[in-house]
Amino acid sequence: MSTFFVVSDDILGNIISRLPAKSFAAAACVNHVWNRVSDLILSRPRLASGLSVAESPEIAVDEALEMALSKPIRPHFAIAFVGLQFPIEEMHNRITSKIGANTLLITSAALGIIGVDSTTNELEEVNWEYEGDAPNTGDDMYRGITLVIGFVPGLKLNVFPMLRTKSEPQVTMVDKFISDVRDFTASVSGDANRDPIGITLFGDHCRNVKPILAEIDTKISRETIMIGDVHNFFVCTNAAILNVDTNLYTLDAVALVFARDNQNNEVEIKFHVGISSGIIPIGPKLEILDVLEYEDKSSWLIARTQDEQLPLDASNLLTSLHALIEDNCYFLYVGVIKEIVPQEGGPSIKYTSFHEVVGTRQNMFIVAGTGINPGDACMFYHSDMETAKGSSTNVYNRFNSLAEPPPRQVLGQLISANQANREKVFGGILFGSSNRGEKYFGNSMTDCMPFLKNFPQVPFGGTFCFEPIGRSPVLEDEEWPSQENRFNMQAFNTVHLLMSYKTS
Asked: Which residues contact 427 (CB under 8 A, 6 or more apart)?
């Protein structure tokens, strides 16, 4: 006859906490005691990530999931960054089948991936080469995935589409999007809290959503953080997306919205955004005289300086700018000042749209992207190594206030700092410009440094993409003119999201 020995909750918790997520979920279903102990283990927020560069999409998904689910977690949301050579919809469906259809999942194409490698257990930064209008499609290129999974008690999440009407004039329904987000937030946070604490946004590569972001910036609370990638391919199978009438609307973007849960006051989650910029202006101010758009991918510009009547010689101007730039390796951009009037009226909004310079032809500049008009004012900008490294250091210093202080020596013993009511960092997500990374800095950790040096044991993952965007909250002691756009839509930036929590 066997005897079952009753163990304490502490011993049982120690055992269950070592299980991978799937086994942990099964253990929680054994009986009421095991379920209660499991709830105690997962009473605090968690983030998990996994990276795989396996050549098979099926193996890559399974390896990334195994790494991300190697410890107990109950997924509330997941974001998958997938290399361009992989079938994004098939991988999205495979991930959904593994983590459950109730988990909010957005799968996005990636020009590079960042995370802990499932085979080496080391942090990896993989930034594939992108040449001209097409990726380098070598056998080992654009094959990989980073998966980020989050468990965020104290928050409620939902996904919302940003729709564009198909009927003329085609317009993005900004106010409908904001209204839907606010209705959801009020329903879970209370009528006093109309705006969410955070939005992660993914924009379609065929749409220029920058003017939309500029308008959203003026209408959403300045305490709401926003990050994301606004020029990409993405898949989301949430009901709100599946129920869109495709005869009437197209999808410009999709947003993962985080709102406070007024039913859970035990945990307070905070989002912190750090933005590392890396460009500086160069040369004279210009006026666009004429624009030719090519296949919705590039624009051919004729421009003049503001004190001249004749068009500039594009080749000669770029040669003169090159002589002024000290970096051997740099990227050149045109920053075009745009002005829009909100759909529902109100003061006009100004923002700067950046376009990478990809060449010249006679007296024309060739830049990536469209949406530039005759009469627009612009300037050239170039990437600058010292500026990029300095801004990354600034983000590191900003995050350092949240890092756990090192133990102190007291009478020959190491004593930990007082942790009473201290914010605890539990994860991070990074969106970086595809022009940055190891191929620019010469090392693979400059963009990761604000996370890696401050929080070496905290999981994070991310992607390199065409157009990362970020919007940090206005601090209590910070003044910000209401007419200025708070979104950072600069070229050549890296946006860091740090997540922390306090317990009551």
From this structure: 45, 46, 47, 48, 49, 148, 150, 458, 459, 460, 499
